[in-house]
């Protein structure tokens, strides 16, 4: 929890930003910040278990020059997630590094198909809490992430 005196010192992000997922080899990915969502999620398909503790999954192409990418990450477990339409889904969660605005920290992200959504990455309030403020009138305040 951040008290009111410390909020003035927090960096400000727009409602959408360019992020990086360096442990997954993702240098740039568009993400929507959603303080109404508890957890974060990443558009992925073909999710498969590798033994007991790892997942392998496909990140479909996004953008004009992107290619599909296969990733692996440690499996944290499965949790029920209710989407904005009220539908419940049992999703796998991974922990990986997220980077934006010169900051990098570990976050928990669920993997799910988001092909009908405009952003392949949704960042929920658990990943943002105490780190940033969101200005809903601005977009891409931090520019593109540079490795």
From TrEMBL:
- What Pfam families would the database entry show? Zn_protease (PF05618)
Location of the Retropepsin-like aspartic endopeptidase domain:
12-140
Q: Which domain of life is it from?
A: Bacteria
Protein name in the entry: Uncharacterized conserved protein
């Amino acid at each position: 929890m951040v008290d009111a005196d410390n909020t003035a010192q927090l960096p400000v992000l727009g409602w959408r930003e360019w992020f990086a997922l360096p442990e997954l080899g993702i240098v740039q990915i568009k993400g929507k910040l959603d303080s109404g969502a508890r957890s974060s999620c990443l558009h992925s398909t073909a999710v498969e278990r590798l033994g007991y503790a790892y997942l392998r999954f496909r990140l479909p192409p996004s953008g004009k020059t992107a290619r599909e990418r296969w990733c692996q990450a440690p499996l944290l477990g499965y949790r029920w997630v209710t989407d904005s339409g009220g539908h419940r889904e049992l999703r796998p969660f991974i922990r990986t590094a997220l980077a934006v605005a010169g900051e990098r920290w570990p976050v928990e992200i669920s993997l799910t198909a988001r092909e009908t959504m405009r952003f392949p990455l949704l960042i929920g309030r658990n990943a943002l809490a105490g780190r940033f403020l969101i200005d809903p009138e601005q977009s891409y305040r931090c520019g593109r992430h540079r490795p």
